Each structure stands twice: as C-alpha cells, then as structure tokens.
Amino acid sequence: EKGGYDYFMLKEIAEQPKAVADTLLGRIDASGSLSLDEVRISPSELREVDKVVVVACGTAFHAGLIAKYAIEHWTRIPCEVELASEFRYRDPILDARTLVIAISQSGETMDTLMALRHAREQGARVLAVCNTNGSTIPRESDAVLYTHAGPEVAVASTKAFLTQLVACYLVALYLGQVRGTKWGDEIQAVVRDLSRISCEVERVLETMEPVRELARSLASKNTVLFLGRHVGYPVALEGALKLKELAYMHAEGFAAGELKHGPIALIEEDLPVVVVVPSPRGRSVLHDKIVSNIQEIRARGARTIVIAEEGDEAVVPYADHLIRIPATPTLLQPLVATVPLQVFACELATARGNEVDQPRNLAKSVTVE
Ligand code: F6R
C-alpha cells in the first residue's frame, strides 16, 4: 500500500505532481471560468463580498497565509488569515458580506469547525477547501471546493498542502472573475502557468538527492532557522513546522525583514539557516533585500542553505548550499519551494531514527479543541 516507498510520507511527496494536476482538472473551462463543487453562494453574493477571512490550523493555516497574497492581489478584496483556534475568541467582525474560507485536509478539525460555525452564526458565508468528501466541515459550509489530493495517510501534511494552495489560487481567480476585477490578460496567464505547474513540481522531485544528503549531514544539529519574504515567509513557517513535527528539532520561521528586529541575535557559528529567495524577476526589490539578508547572516557565521530560482546568480557567492527550483510567477513559487523543505524534514527525521509517518504526540486529525 506504500507503493514501494518506505513511508507514506515519501509516497505522498512523490504524488504531488498528480495531486496538483487532479485539483486543477476540469475546473477551468476554455474561457477561464471555474466551477465549484457544491455552491450555495451565488455569483451575485460573491460580488457583494467586502472582506475575506481565512481560518485554518497548522499546515492549512500556512496555505491560508499564502492565499491572502493571491486574493488581495487578484481581487483587491481585503483578506485576513487567522488561526482557527484564536478566531472566535476575539469577537471577530463578521456579516453577510464576509466570505470565510475554512481550509482543512481532514474536514474534521474541531478548531476549524467551531470557527466556521461561529462565522455562520454571525451571518457570514463559508466556503470550505477540503480534501475529504462528505466530511463535517464541507457539510456545514455554504460551498466547497475539494482538493483532489487523494487520501493522505502520513500525519505530516504534504500533498494536501500543495493542493490547498491550488484550490486557494482557483478561489482567488474565481472571485476575480465574478467581480470583474483584473479579469483579463493577467488572470488568463496565471491559469496557463497553473496548468504547467505540476510538471515543475515533478522537476523539483527529480533533483532532491543533494537535499537528502544535506539533511543527513545536519542530523546532529539542534536548531534550524527558516527565512522568507512575501509568499516565501509562509513557506519558511511551513518548513519549520515540518522540521519540528518530524525531526523534533527546534525550528523557527521568520520574515527575513524582521531579522534585524531581533532574530539576528540567534545567529551563531555554523547555525543552519534556510532562506527562500523570491524570484529576481518581478519583485526584484525583495530579491535584492533578501540577498543582503543572506550576506548579513553569513557574515555572522550562519551556514546558509539557499533555495533560489534557476538562473539566479546573485545568491551564488553567499550560499553554502544551493537548492535550485524552477522559475515560476511570484505568487505560485510556494508550490515548488515547499517541496525541498518537505524532503529535508523527512530525511532528517529518518536520519534521527524517528517514526516518519507517526510522529510522537501527534494525530492525523485533531477532533478536540
Ligand atoms: C502538519 C499537519 C497539521 C494539520 C492541521 C490541520 O503537517 O498536518 O498541522 O495541517 O492539524 O489539519 P486539517 O487540515 O485536517 O484541518
């Protein structure tokens, strides 16, 4: 049932190109229109939406953080992202014009379920992004877009995360479409880029041997830091979460721009720091800033592990280890940049003798608050 892999996690990492392609399949027609699976939210209601709030936990929350960049950029609707466990306890401002997106692989996470119930009580519309057909969260939502990742068995979420991203991009494009915002050349181009992305994920998977080697060489370390900017920041958080739950190492993700506001004090000789570098094309200001961040931490002794686009030569002098990913549009980069971090955490867990599919103290679905 593991299909020749030692662990479900490895199998599920390998299944990501297919999971991504399946989640896109049949959802966008030739004119660029998206269809949701079950919708009790009409296009006219979606045109009225004046705020989007994403609620989720753990890895799904990281997908939500990335969704915010896409939703605000493509639709110009303000978007907040909140941990489901915090959401209802702060008396959030919600009404019939709020669209709440609840992201959950299992569809049974109690924190997320309680958040969406609270949102509906306040009159908000709820759209579920979910991987499990007929589970509680989609049943209790006004609409659902299923992620077609197939069953995810390993406790650590991998393919579900990539498909949550794809689903969120689709929702953002759909909102843009029904509202007529920015609908046009840019969105058409994104749809085309998305349809090619599963091949890029495949290409990343083919080049992971050096990442495994690197992970094994770090097995005796205690701490790994992760830095990113823009959509690379949630990717850094996700890389750190994977390492905590699988390798039981101290790992933290930071927004690279925050370094000088505190975290740079943590940098010491030979500390591994993974940096997710934005594309040098597009938002090149961010790229240049992160290159100087890499220089800064390296000057203080950090061992820099740099994830950068193919052809990005500016990072080469400052990278102790360089992990290449294919060039993608800025907003889509998390689909390729997350994969090496999953492989890294999985290999470190194995090297440290940990149980990869069943990390200690964790359950696949958390059905208590
Ligand atoms: C991390 C992980 C968890 C889940 C979280 C939400 O690898 O698997 O952080 O992402 O418990 O679960 P779902 O998506 O089922 O609501």
Automatic annotation (TrEMBL):
It is found in: Cytoplasm. Coiled coil: none annotated. GO terms for molecular function: glutamine-fructose-6-phosphate transaminase (isomerizing) activity. It catalyses: D-fructose 6-phosphate + L-glutamine = D-glucosamine 6-phosphate + L-glutamate. Its EC number is 2.6.1.16. Keywords: Aminotransferase, Cytoplasm, Glutamine amidotransferase, Repeat, Transferase. It is an enzyme of class 2 (transferase). The active site is at K364. Catalyzes the first step in hexosamine metabolism, converting fructose-6P into glucosamine-6P using glutamine as a nitrogen source. Homodimer. This is Glutamine--fructose-6-phosphate aminotransferase [isomerizing]. The gene is glmS. The chain holds residues 247 to 615 of 615 of the full protein.
